[in-house]
Structures are given as structure tokens and as C-alpha cells.
Design a protein that fits this description.
Four copies of one chain form a homotetramer. The first copy, chain A, is of the alpha+beta class. In chain A, 22% of the residues lie in helices and 40% in strands. Chain A has a six-stranded antiparallel β-sheet with strand order 1-2-4-5-6-3. The interface between A and B is large, with 40 and 40 residues.
């Protein structure tokens, strides 16, 4: 599938970083965009007690937010100038409780398209030097044209 | 389907409220459990600028967290004593940008089961006196037995 | 949501019936389009032994095909002239084994859109005079323009 | 993840083949189980005109049935003696119209578990000597114990 993953703008990295920087929620929870390539984005989140659910694991909603954001920006790396990106839908399987010092979310494009881009995301937990898969996501991102309030 | 929605513990409301109270993430974002019945839970979230994505709408991950939490606790209202609840998986369609003064998430049980409970969730945005549907979720919750660290 | 469900072509019923009639797979399994309204479609399938999986229940793929088709045509009732409809994605929860004399799939539009239409589907089994829910689907349908090979 | 994919019965291959052989629907559409390993199953389907939707592509429900069946049996290769396998839920993205001489569905286990096994499936179309991805599935399979009517 990789042969199609051609960026359409040369400054896609700066564009993604600027948009990520405007995500107040990512900033608030302490997430960092750590790696970026055409069709791929990696986000890290250090553990924080105020992100947990009732058993002390990181809340599934936070895990999902990381995977969704990594996938959305993975899609955005391949989009043309002047558009915005929105999540249409996603499905996530939570495979194991999210515990450990750090969560790492990786999003990648499975199929780019003019309007819809299908992405896969994975979230790993780093705990005591080991990385384990805690969630896997499959979702659809949309290229939004001609709506200035959604241009990134 | 409603005929099967029989709570198995009499204090299910107190149990859900106590568990919700331990969700540090729900507290941190300002979410409130506002309504509760057998198989149904409603959660509200007042708008806050630090919950937004790059266009100023509430982040899809937050919308998802609300719907997931409402569904998880809707399932938990019907579970027996001594167990915990975990989200197995869910899929959400984001129908419209989440803007407005308040988000309202409603979770309800579609099919209770001994191990798995299937739930539907909806998230509405209240804006200028009107309520509009912004997301719809379909997910699977699990009754966790014999794992003391996951007992609610 | 219902206020938006306005057909854009007056002959939407004839158009859906003609397209359904070209679905060789629906014909082959014995499915019938039994009811049709703006944003809603109902399909029936009498039980047949050659549609079963290893335990003698109707195969999950057949159940899914019915729900998907009902949703796709529910979306198509609201689409303009000259376009086609394709399924982008769907998620289905299989709630109970599909047994009985007849399966009934009902698809309805949750949110129509210019490009994407979000639909919900349910499949019921009629067995000994009772109807029970066996599956629930949430999916996304696409309006396909300017591709003559996909015009319905 | 692969380190955990240990079959619990030595004759898992014979068991899967026998169960697949009882799937009347797979037989009826002409599907063949072509490859089988611990945690992995491959199914092929030669094109047939009576499996198509209104545009002449193989029906999304058939594509889904192949991916679901490959995933269910991938999960079943890892299950203990005396149990059955059922699909709990799955989500599929249809990436391209399913055309070509042959469809190939590959299912593999992402995470085995005592009760739930999470699987990924892909469906490829072979057309004029080339293979292209037409669908990707993420789903949950269940180990069914103590229900003789669902023992495989």
C-alpha cells in the first residue's frame, strides 16, 4: 500500500505541528507529537493520575483520543493545501488496561483518498522497560474543503 | 428489549455514583453524572476551552469518553455484586462538530448478558437553547469477575 | 432528527426497487425488499439451510448483508438524481444466534449528508410467533458522484 | 504479539477444517479454506455473478462474510477442546470495490484471551495478476463454553 503515500504539500510536517499545537485538549493532558512522516504520526503521553478511570488505569477515552489524533494527523500529512481534517468515525478495541509510565499512540494511513482516508492506530503502554499493546483502532478521516472554520 | 433490564443489586445507583466519583478523568474535565436508571445513564459536560481540538470544537476523544462512560455505567447498573466493568470495544460516528454550552451523553443497554453487555450511546450538544445530536456510539462492555483490582 | 429526511427525487421508491432488483446476491439468497419510506427500508429473508454457519444459525455474514443493504437503500432514498450509493464502513454487534423462520432487517438514516449518510440497522428473527433482536449495525454510506460505473 | 499464539489442542487444523466444512453458507458461495496456521486463516472465493451487488461488484456482505469467517477460525485455532466460537462484533472498512477473478480473505489473531479474542482481517482482490486490498476488518470473537449446541 505504501506506494501511494505521497504528500501533496512540501511543508506537511510544519502544518501538522501547527495544527497539533492548536489542540488545547492535547496540550492540557500533556500529549506530545514525537514523530511524523508521510502517512504516519506518533504521539506520547506520560502517565498522570488525573487521566484515570475508576480502577486507576488511563481512561479509555484518553487512550482513544490519542489514537484518533495520531490517525487524524497521519491522514492530514497526505492532504492538499487549504483543507481541514475531521474524524468521521472510528472503532477501537481495548486489549489491556492502560497502565505504565507512558502511552505511545501510532497512527498510519491504510488507504488515502480524495475525500476519505482510512487509518489504523495502535496504542502501546511502556511499563518497567517493556512495551505492550493496549488498544487498536480502525477509523475514517475526512478531507474538509470549502469550510473556512475547519481549515487547519 | 426493556423487559430484561432488571438490576441485580438494590443499591446500583449508589454503586455507580461511587465508581463514577473515582474516575479522576471525569472529574478533571468537569463531567457530572446527572441521571441514572436501570440500564440508562446520563452525563453532562459544560464547555471548556481546554477540551477543544484545533478548530475550537470539543475534541472527539472527549466526546467519546463521555459516551463510553455513560454506556459503561449503564451496563454496570445491571451487573451483580462484586464485579467490575470494563469497555471491550466501541465504535463512534461523529455526526457534527461538538460546539455549544453543554454536552449531554446518554448511554443505554441494548442487550445485557452474563459476560458481555451491548450498549448504545448518544451525545447531544446544547447550543442557544437547542439540542442537536453530535455523535452516536455502539459498544460492548464486559463484566469482570475474580479480578480484585478491577472490582468497582 | 426526522425533520431533515426529505427525499430529493420524487421517484425514490422506484429507483431503490430497481437497484435492489439488480443485486444478484440478494436475489440468490432469497431476500425481499418489503417496505420502503424516506430514510427507511425493510428487507426480509426466509430461513434456508444453505445460508447457515457451522452451528446451523444463519451466517453472520448474511445477517450483516441484510443490515448493510437495508441501510444502504435507506440512505439512497434521500440521495439526489444521477448518483450511486456505496457502503464506506459499518460495525455490527451480533446479539443472539440468528435462528427462526424469517429474518427482518430494518435500516434507517440517522444523519443524511451531502457526501456521507450515517445509518442504523437492526435485524430481528421471527421464531414461533415472536420477534427478537439478533443484530444491530451502525454504518456510513457514501453518495458517489461522477462515476458512471457506480450510478444506480 | 506473536509469542502468545500457542495452540491449546494439537489437532487444531483438523478441527477448523471440520467446522468450516459444516458452514453451509461458505460451501454455497464457493469459498475454500486454503491456508491455516496457529492464529491465521486464509479463505479464497472465486468470482461468481450471483454474489454481486447492483454495480456488479461482489456484495459487501459477502466480503464481510469472508473476513469474519477467516477471523473466527483464526481465533478458533487457539481455543481449547470442547468449546465453540461465535462472532461478538466486527467493524469493516470497504476500501475499494471488490472486483476481480478471486477474493482472498486473511484473518489473524491480534490478542487471544480466555473469553474474547481480538482479530484483524483483510480481503484482497486478485485482478489481472495483481492483488489489491479491498477491505479491512477489526473484530471480537468469543470462546463459548458449556453450550453443547455451540460446540464446534
Amino acid at each position: 500500500m505504501g506506494q501511494e503515500l505521497e504528500p501533496q504539500v512540501s511543508d506537511y510536517e510544519a502544518r501538522v505541528r501547527a495544527s497539533f499545537g492548536r489542540q488545547r485538549f492535547m496540550e492540557m493532558i500533556g500529549a506530545r507529537l514525537v514523530r511524523l512522516a508521510a502517512g504516519e504520526v506518533e504521539i506520547e503521553l506520560p502517565h498522570r493520575a488525573d487521566l484515570t478511570q475508576q480502577h486507576g488505569f488511563v481512561h479509555a477515552g484518553v487512550v482513544t483520543a490519542l489514537a484518533d489524533t495520531a490517525c487524524g494527523y497521519a491522514a492530514f500529512t497526505l492532504m492538499p493545501a487549504g483543507v481541514g481534517v475531521l474524524s468521521v468515525e472510528y472503532k477501537i478495541n481495548l486489549l489491556a488496561p492502560a497502565r505504565g509510565e507512558l502511552l505511545v499512540a501510532r497512527g498510519r494511513v491504510l488507504r488515502p483518498g480524495r475525500t476519505l482516508t482510512v487509518c489504523a492506530g495502535e496504542v502501546f503502554a511502556r511499563h518497567a522497560g517493556e512495551e505492550s499493546l493496549v488498544a487498536t483502532l480502525l477509523g475514517t478521516m475526512m478531507t474538509v474543503r470549502d469550510r473556512p472554520e475547519i481549515a487547519d
